[in-house]
Design goal:
With 106 residues, the protein is α/β, with parallel strands linked by helices. The chain contains three helices and seven strands, in the order αββββαβββα. The model has no long low-confidence stretch (mean pLDDT 89).
């Protein structure tokens, strides 16, 4: 699972030309404005962004000294964005490039 997460983080940052930052639970990169890019990844079927995960990611972003709003990538989200963070769905094009082990795609 960690290998999938690292590969996915690399693709997201490379596609958007963001600086990469591995070694954090959520933070995978930064924008040119020093805003955090975060990722929730527990496999393709279990990577929904929840309020608990947003709170944990926000604490990590603050601890890392990065600016808000941060972007948090996941497969789905049922909570509204705020001034502090924005949900970004992991693009299907990126998931299609991943050799994922937890499910079969259509």
């Amino acid at each position: 699972m960690q290998r999938e997460r690292d590969a996915l983080a690399g693709l997201i940052c490379q596609t958007n030309r963001w600086g990469s930052r591995l070694g954090w639970e959520f933070i995978i990169g930064t924008t040119k404005r020093n805003e955090a890019i975060c990722l929730v990844w527990n496999g393709e079927q279990d990577s929904e962004v929840t309020s608990d995960l947003v709170e944990r990611a926000a604490k990590e972003v603050t601890a890392a000294g990065l600016k808000l709003p941060f972007r948090i990538y996941g497969t789905s989200c049922r909570i509204a964005n705020t001034a502090s963070w924005r949900f970004c769905q992991i693009p299907d094009e990126i998931l299609a490039q991943m050799p994922l082990s937890d499910g079969v795609r259509d």
